[in-house]
Structure formats: C-alpha cells, structure tokens
Fold this sequence. Notes:
With 518 residues, the protein is mostly helical. Helix content is 78%, strand content 0%. The longest helix has 50 residues, at 158-207.
Amino acid sequence: MNATTWIIIGIMAYAAFMVFHGFSNFKATSKSAESFFNADRGVSSLVLVATTAISVFSGLTYYGYPSSIYRFGMGYFAGTGMAVCALCFCTIGFRLWVLGKEYGFQTPSDYLRTRYYSEGFGLFVAILLTIFIIPYTTLQLIAIGDGISTTTNGAFPYMLAVLFGTVCVSLHIIGGGMKSVAWLDTFHLILGFAAVYVLLIVLVMKHFPDGGLVEAANIVANGERASVLSVPGPEGNYDWKVMLNLAVTGAVATIVWPHIFMRCYIAQGTKNFKVMAVALPLIYATVFIGLVTLGAIIAPALLGPNFADPDEIIPTLATKFCPPIVSFISLLCIFAFAVSTADSMLLSASAMASRDIYARWRYELKGQAVEPKKTVFFARIILALMMVACIIISMFKPTYITDYAYRLCSPFFAMIMPCTVGGLWWKKGTKEGAWAGTIGGLIVVFAMTFFITPPLGFSALAWGLVVNTALYVGVSLCTKCPEEVVEKYINRVGSIINCTTEMREKTAKAVQAARVAS
Length: 518
C-alpha cells in the first residue's frame, strides 16, 4: 500500500476512536442536561485549560494563521491576544462561574434572561447565537475537508471528506456531550502542539540543513516577500488600528463566544481560574509562535513570494515538503483543532435550542416540568439537523476562511459583550438598555459588514461595540433596574466572592500560626 492509503486508514481509525470515546459516555450523559452540557461542573484545571485553549484555536488557527501571516505580515499576530484572553476568563469567567454555581445557569441566554428579567431577551440571544454558530462550525468542516483532500492528493475528495468529518463530529457530541468533548480536547491540545512543532522542525532540518531557521529568515529578508516580516506587512495597511481591530476580535470578544462562555460554567473550583491565568497565555504563546514562524519564514522561503492559494499553505508544506508520516500528523492536527471547536460550538447551539427555546417555551413557561432526558434527546436531534445545514454551506466553500469567520461570526457574537459585562458589575444595567444596546450594535455590525465601509479604519466589530455600549449605558440610565435583581445578581455574587476570599485568608493565617506554634 502507498502512503496515501495508509493516511486514509489512519484517519478512519482515529475517527472510529473518536466515535467510540463519545459513546462511552452515552448513558451517563443521557440522564442529566447538566451532565450533557456542563460535565456536571466537575472539570479539573488541566482539562479546563486544554478544552478552552483548543476550542479557541480551531481549524482556522492551524490553517488560517500561517495563511494570514503570509498574506498580511507580522501585524496579524495581534489577533492572538494571549494575556487578554486569560484576563477575561479569570475575571468575567470567574464571576459567571459563581453565578452558574449559585443559580444553575448552563448557557449564555440562561444568565442574560434572568439578569435582565426578560424572557424575550433570553430567547433573542439564544436564536442569535445559534444562527451564527452554524457558519463558524461550517468553517471547521471546510478546514477538515481541505486538509484530508490535499493530504491524500485528491484520493479522498473534498465533499466526501466534509461528510466524513461531519459524521465524526456529530456522533462524538451526540454520544457523550461535554464530558466527551472536554476530555478529548486535552488529548487534542497535546496532539496539536506536537504537530505544529514536528512540522516546523522537520521543514527546517530537511530544507535548511546548514543555517536552520536563520538561513530561512535570510532568504525571506532578502527576497520579494521581505515585507512579511514587518508590521505594515506586504499590503502595507496593517497599522495600529487594524491591529487593534484584530485584538478586539480575537481576544477581547472571545469570552462571549458561546462555546467559551459555557466553559465558564464547567470549572470544578476557584483553583481552575488561578491556573488559567498562568497556563492560558503560555499555551497561546507557544502554539502561535510556531504558527507565525511557519507563515512568516518557512512558507515564503519554500513557496516563494506569490503562492496562489494561501489557505493551502499548511497542507502544501506538509504534503510536498515532508515525509508521509509528517503529513499524517499534520492532518491529525487539523482534525484536533477543527473538531475541538466544531463539537464545542454545536454543543452550545444544541444547549440553547433545547433548553432556552424548546424546554423553556414549550414546558417551563407553562408551568410544566420537563424531564432532563427529553431535553438531552431534543438536543441530540438539533445536533443532527445543524450538521446537515453545515454540510450544505460547506458545498459553497468560502475563500480565506479566517477573514470570513472574523467578519461574519465574531462581530455578531461580540454584541452580547456589553450587556454581559455590565450585568455582572453595573447595578444600573436594565433590560431596556440591554435590548437597545444589542439591537443597535447588531444593526451597525450588519450595515458595516455588508453595505458601508467602517469609518476611520476601525472594524465593524469595534464600531458595533462602541454604539452598543453607548446605547446600553444611555438607555439604562433613563430606566430603572429592580432592586431584587441588583441584590440577587450583583450584591449576592460580590458577597460570595468576598466571603470566600476572607475565609481563605483566615485559614491561611490559622495554618501559619499553627506552624509557628509547633
């Protein structure tokens, strides 16, 4: 058998392992919605760091970042926002975790509906996020399809690869929910990290044996693509405004992406967030340095200054310039990155569709109890339907996948950020303000994405956040938030956090005193 055949067999074996792993948790997750969607709120620090990081990375990261660095230059690195992501998770995320533990929240709309005492607003958020999860998930499947097709030299056609990836992802989530997703993400992070650096090291050793990375960098610096190493970049338009746009999109707004939002609820305890504060930036830095090196130095040195299809940089480097085993490892990496985001996104969408739309409006608001098994069963049906929608969109295969995702999905996810953050700390935030800000921001984002060029060089997302925040604050100041809401969702949470801190400090002092006495 040739190398391509072995690669196909290896991918099918790995897919079988994924499906088996998912269904190994089928019974445990069928009885409880909290188990299926939130892993019983018992995820350890290691698993939380891994599942959060790999879910942010996505297939767009492994294929998209080297591609975008090659096209735009080093300024694109601003999109990583390493420390900012960790800071958001450990401040905003920690407070959401406390609320989730106290009141049983499982989804973004769970929190926003109750904080803003509006069933309509909760429904609106659930529908909004679910709609825009589908195109983002589709991009992960496109990345899988491209990776398999390119690595196997067309022996595994693109659409067949998309169908194959779709079945694997859907069965994995349907089988085990968040329990399967979070634990497999840990393995995927290790696999993804290894694949990035195996690819990088092999390329350097094989093609630049004398001078190594320095030799490759000199080739780029003395060639037509030298501008890729500069901040303005080859197209000369990556100034501080564009870099700020990227940072807002890829770092600041990431916390309210639905699948990351829900990870704020699954932590086991406060220790998780301390570990996240240190581990998340380190993981980001390590992985992205490898990806940036591939896009800024290795790709232009080996592929030349005018590579025709930048989205194919990584699969081309892996298949044309490396041994088959490295091609296979690289393909597993795109599986790891893409599957980890796709299953997390789809799980979030199914949670909102089943809990916040179906169960809430079909049963709970009518005073009827809903069995957890029913909610989980409906969630699994929703997952299957969404995967069909993703397959249909994948047939059109949009170009420049990273830009597409950032322009279409991230800005719309980000429009729940002002009301999320304001609802956690600002006592005057009202439902009228939340409605006005979110709707106003969405209108601005939609208009500037499809019809109007955003002014002054800032992105549609940045302008949407500015308008959203201004409307949220302005309208909230003209209306009144009920005292019981303030007490329950701000004062109460603050008391819990302060009490926990005080108890920890007293315990530490008591232990220290005991040691001194002994």
